[in-house]
Design a protein that fits this description.
Elements lengths: L2 E5 L2 E3 L4 E2 L3 E5 L4 E6 L7 E4 L4 E4 L1 E6 L1 E2 L2 E2 L5 H12 L3 E8 L4 H14 L10 E2 L2 E4 L21 H6 L4 E6 L8 H9 L3 E4 L6 H10 L3 E2 L15 H8 L4 E5 L10 H8 L3 E4 L11 E5 L2 E6 L2 E4 L11 H11 L4 H7 L2 H6 L17 E4 L5 E6 L2 E5 L1
Length: 383
């Protein structure tokens, strides 16, 4: 064993923040060994200097970064994304495709497939699988997705690629009798999410009973919450088995709602970026799903003004929720680590600083600026 101890940190656990102890991990096995009261003389140490020592972040909805996009089907591009987001504290992610031509989706799946094993040991965030956002969506709620590429829900396509697709976004009302949802739920552990949907409240509630257990970017591109027509938003907030995504960039959702969602959903609130290739890039014109998008500040839009993804960094999402709520810091970190890991069924290995889990660790200052990113016991980024 090659033990390393992180000292002088505020250690972020799922239910508390611990001070006065050290976090031990084995850089040989890449596993966390637990908290200790004292460090042996001469041991290998990392001084956290009073910063937060938190679990690596998990982004389950990210299209692109640094000029690259998962839907391009470029292995080099996806690798560049992985290395780039490691600087934002992300240690695991799902490259996210969108409603592009089916052949393009297949090419993207193959590109990710070719990288998955390598990503476990490279110097960037690990690829857990793919989030297929579409093409099984409702044209009326397509948002920035291209209508000509929308298809009817097809369980067989997802099942044929279930080795790499870990999460699919679809519109329940486009799935007659919820046949696709039921088939996926009974034959796979793919996370089935309702998004880009105009379903009525009753249909969305039924979808949650039939196998949907997640809602893609809550409030955005879905039927709204109204007192007589609670819509998909109402169904997502009131269905106990449904986790919900929040794009906490202060633009997609009024930050005054962060606390409300947290109170209603608890451990089922998940922070995501929905970041596009414009993330980490200067203001200007970029491309998303074959359409031009325009970045100005924190806003990404199509030419007609339609919101088109974000340029959010996941550590900034954590910071924004901390700054706009009275929620405990550990609870907010959990929204970007353990909660998404639970949603995609890999929390036995990642998502928290618990003994036996992967040593995916970040050190951040009080403003959640990332000082160091450690993946499986190896430092992959240091500011």
């Amino acid at each position: 064993m090659a033990l390393t101890y992180i000292t002088n940190g505020n250690i972020v656990l799922p239910d508390s923040i611990v001070c006065g102890k050290a976090l031990a991990f084995d850089s040989d096995s890449g596993k966390i060994c637990g908290l200790v009261d004292s460090v042996p003389a001469g041991a290998d140490t990392i001084d956290a200097e009073g910063c937060f020592v938190a679990p690596g972040l998990v982004d389950i909805h990210i299209h692109g970064y640094l000029g690259e996009d998962a839907s391009d089907g470029s292995a080099e591009g996806i690798k560049k994304m992985a290395y780039g987001i490691a600087q934002n504290g992300v240690t695991a992610f799902l490259p996210t495709t969108m409603t592009v031509a089916k052949k393009q989706i297949e090419a993207a799946l193959n590109a990710v497939r070719s990288l998955k094993e390598e990503s476990k040991t490279w110097g960037g965030a690990e690829i857990i699988g793919v989030h297929a956002e579409g093409p099984f969506i409702n044209p009326s709620k397509k948002g920035a997705q291209a209508e000509e590429n929308i298809l009817k829900p097809d369980a067989d396509f997802i099942l044929e690629n279930a080795d790499i697709i870990k999460y699919v976004t679809l519109a329940p009302e486009m799935d007659e009798g919820h046949c696709c949802i039921k088939k996926l739920a009974s034959q796979s552990d793919v996370l089935i999410s309702m998004g880009h949907t105009d379903a009525k409240f009753e249909e969305a509630v039924q979808a949650a009973k039939d196998g949907v257990s997640h809602a893609t970017h809550l409030f955005n591109a879905m039927s709204a919450l109204a007192h007589r027509n609670p819509g998909v938003v109402g169904a997502a907030l009131t269905s106990d088995n449904v986790s919900v995504e929040v794009i906490a960039d202060t633009f997609h959702i009024n930050p005054g709602l962060y606390s409300m969602v947290a109170k209603l959903k608890g451990d089922k609130m998940v922070l995501i970026t929905d970041c596009t290739r414009a993330g980490g890039m200067p203001d200007g014109e970029y491309e998303l799903g074959g359409q031009p998008i325009f970045l100005k500040g924190i806003e990404c839009r199509l030419a007609d003004g339609t919101i088109a993804g974000s340029v959010l960094k996941l550590n900034d999402a954590v910071k924004n929720v901390i700054n706009h709520t009275d929620l405990p810091v550990y609870e907010v970190f959990k929204m970007a680590s353990l909660n998404p890991a639970n949603a995609i069924h890999c929390s036995e290995r990642i998502g928290s600083l618990e003994e036996g889990k992967d040593a995916d660790i970040i050190i951040t200052d009080k403003d959640i600026n990332v000082k160091r990113t450690i993946k499986k016991g190896k430092t992959i980024y240091e500011a």
